[in-house]
Amino acid sequence: MEFKPPKETRQPSLPSLKLCQIRQAVDHSKKFTQSSGRTKIAILAAFPVSCLPGREEKTIPSAHYATWLPQLAAAWEDQDDFEIHWLTVSPRVSQVLLTTAWNQQFHILPCREKGRAARLYWQDRRTIREMLGRIRPKIVHAWGTEDTYAWAAAGCGYPVILSMQGILSHYGLCHFAHPKIYFQALLELFCLFQAQRITVETTWGRTVLRQRGVSCPIDVVEYGVREEFFQTPWEPDSEKPVALFIGSLLPMKGIQDAVQAFRSPEMSGYQLWILGSGGHSGIQALRARSPSNVRWLGRRAHQEIPTIMQKAWCLVLPTRADSSPNVVKEARVMGLPVLTTNLGGQACYLQDGRDGYLIFPGQIAHLKDRLKSCLGDFAKTRQMGDLGKQAYREVFLPSKTAHAFLGLYKTML
After folding, report:
1. Sign of the C-alpha dihedral, residues 324, 199, 142, 180?
2. Most Cβ neighbours (<10 Å): which of 32, 117, 344, 398?
3. Is residue 203 classed as helix, strand or coil in its secondary structure?
4. d(CA 107, CA 99)
5. For 282, what's the count of Cα atoms within 13 Å in the CB-facing half-sphere?
6. Is the pTM of this model over 0.70?
């Protein structure tokens, strides 16, 4: 598919603008919000700006970003029932960016790098609400409770669908987290009861939300996997057993268990590759004490992930709390066996002992035993990876995600 570089319209940076100036910036987007005769949907989400055509090298994010959103937007390119507007705030742009891609409108609004949560996202919410007033959508679709989007949608005056990414009120109960997580969890609890409809990726997520007392309809909609993982063949070196960890480098992700398992002398013939970033002081100390068979690859561009994953024998994710990490879906689409815990929706994507292993967090001997089972027998690992692979490749198609959300929009209307 070929893309033309998106047209851009710039305005002064929002953080320094007064309310009247923000309104002028919003008014300037009038040509993007003219009625096309289609029903308008406004999506509030942390869309990775670096994935927009023509901006790949300009705004590479420094932290985790929603890798499942670009393929959703691409899958909607040919739909003609809805006029879709994406609204996102980003510290990676210094001016208002209005652009068209995949026959959808993207409104990228500058925001502060730090201190937004401490101000209750006041400026972000004000700017988003102003833009919603101009667009006048029939439905607002807020994506995730980790940032401002669900908070901005709550009480906005339009029907709201809230799509969960992580369930923060669950994370805080399962493992000690950063104070910001607990703050966002409080906002999340409020937002859950403001939405008219909620989507989760697994039945596990729906169960957790029901335990919170949420009574509105909760739909299970799987988020699709990028096309690169369907196209990249799994080609591990039979002479080089490698386990791969991908994710934020946080104790909650269980990275310490994986490193400790590879400290054992009996694991010296195997390698652990760690892909991700994080500034936690404990992680820095862990890295300093890690053995020579542990490689820290740092943060890589999303285009590099499939080529790294295709060389690994298995994915290891000893997480303490998760909802439905996309990296597990990517591994299953490519054909890697997965070692993870049952503390989250990711356990729904494997059958213990058949196409992966469910491991117990903190039990290093058990993790080490399962790693040896995967890394010590290439033929068995290959067989495990192939089991169920085709079924997962059908489940995680972006087109299915796109179709499911279009159906929900029609249902709400």
Report:
1. negative
2. 344
3. helix
4. 7
5. 12
6. yes
Please report, for the chain, the start and end positions of each structural domain, with discontinuous segments joined by +.
14-224+397-412, 227-395
Strands 314-317 and 338-340: parallel
Residue 235 tokens read as 């080609």
Half-sphere exposure of 57 (CA within 13 A, CB side): 1
Q: Hey, what are 321's tokens?
A: 């709390």
Q: Are 361 and 318 in contact (CB under 8 A)?
A: yes
Query: Which CATH architecture is the domain 227-395 placed in?
Result: 3-Layer(aba) Sandwich (3.40)
Residue with tokens 């500058």: 110
Query: What pLDDT, in 10s, does the model give residues 334-384?
Result: 999 999 999 999 999 999 999 999 999 999 999 999 999 999 999 999 999
Q: Is the pLDDT of residue 88 over 60?
A: yes
pLDDT for res 65: 61
Look at residues 195, 226, 172 and name the one whose alpha carbon lies nearest to residue 399: 226
Strand ranges (DSSP E) for 165-313? Answer: 197-200, 218-220, 242-246, 271-275, 294-298
Q: How many CA atoms lie within 13 A of 258 on its CB side?
A: 35
The domain defined by 14-224+397-412 carries CATH number 3.10.580.10: no
Q: Which secondary structure element, helix H or strand E, spans residue 230, and what is its range? A: helix 227-231
Residue 193 vs residues 95, 151, 216, 360: alpha-carbon distances, Å: 34, 11, 8, 33
And the tokens for 73?
């937007």
